[in-house]
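Comment thread on ticket #2218

A.B. wrote:
> Attaching the input chain for the structure job we discussed in standup.
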Amino acid sequence: MADAPLTVRLHGEDNVVVARLAIMENTPLPGEGIRTRQRIPAGHKVATRPIEAGEPVRKYDQVIGFAGEAIQPGEHVHVHNVELRDFARDYAIGSAVRPTTMVPEAERAAFEGFVRPNGKVGTRNYIGILSTVNCSASVCKFIQQSLPADAIAAYPSVDGVVALTHSTGCGLADRGDGFDALQRTLWGFARQPNFAGVLMIGLGCEVNQIDFLLEAYGIERGPHFRTMNMQDLGGTRRTVDHALGMIREMLPHAAEARRETVSASELSLALQCGGSDAWSGITANPALGHAADILATHGGTSILAETPEIYGAEHLLTRRAVSPEVAERLIERIRWWEDYTARNGGEMNNNPSPGNKAGGLTTILEKSLGAAAKGGTSNLTGVYKYAEPVTAKGFTFMDSPGYDPASVTGQVASGANLIAFTTGRGSCFGFKPVPSLKLATNSAMYERMADDMDVNCGDILDGNASIESKGREIFELCLKVASGEPSKSEALGVGDHEFIPWQIGAVM
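C.D. wrote:
> Ran it. Output below, let me know if you need it in another format.
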């Protein structure tokens, strides 16, 4: 640390470097031939050459914004002198596609998972109580709270009973993007492999009718999937009593599941970031991307999401698309978001958040370039709408908002059975029924919040690890957690309140 440089240069063509720690005014920057003109906060950018007004500001050898005024070498480069403008991006579809060197099946990594009757593999063994509408949310929570602890303790192979509730399901159109997304989400959770059984509860008169969902997706009731409506059962107390009886019947069936050795090809890893800082795109995100690359060679799946947070970096993904159709699906989603934000009086640069900016991120372009690093370097094999089942192997993308809980809800509905979540500011996040690994981007935050963080990626910046070695560490930890080792968020009991389906369209 004492001999480490004051700044990080990410590419020779960049006209900014990043301060590794707070740098005082008039400090010489070794290797750059300049002195700082003012104090530069840790993680923030400093200009290394003159940048004329209107000239692109470059980081990662990519455009992250445009100088709003002339910027001199040594000046702090941030929101006060950088602005976002439209500029052409070369999608170069498929130009970076490369063959993936697959690990032979007999040599692939393995984990201990729960193989379900449909062949899908879970990493946990929960029973889920799922509300179809906000009106049945309280009842679902009452059922979870009323179930005696000893009733679950009698079945050690069952991880628990979790109630997933939300604030929609009525007051929306019975067709269109919003309705379709909600139904895909509920259907995805009804067949989530981390659930041994699901009890779905409605009120009875809502727009989002249970029977509509079952008919649309061909779901059949049975010992592992049951439904009820409060109005049919006579209200709250009777619904709770009836549901408790059903849960008691489902527990022995859930307890029959046993972990068995399965290939890492059965892992579906949700790639997430939240509370990002300037180090996210330098440490944790590329390390997670390397882990995703390793997973791809073992036949597994990774799912990148948060469409507003790849905006401006989508051309780096289209170049890796295995077909024009895959690339066009991604471009179509970008265009949808441009229209969606415009018609709602917003703009794509409403992201980053205040915390992101305090951590050194200036524009959505800069944030996106770092966020896209979670996807590694593998070919982009598929692009999916929110909560659509992900069927392709390798690196995939699912459309979602940048709001972490809503995004993860879609990924889990799409089939993710494990989550890896990078953070620079210290987001506290879990998501039952899927375990979530927390990856810290910097050592200072990791040390402050060690009880919440599973991996410190800050040692890449400290010079004690490489992106490759940290990626391998993350991959190995994914296998351990998938096999039952609790993540930090699970040990803390975090994850009961993050189920948030994306609400699209008018609330009526």
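A.B. wrote:
> Thanks. Noting for the ticket: The CA atoms of residues 203 and 230 lie 5 Å apart.
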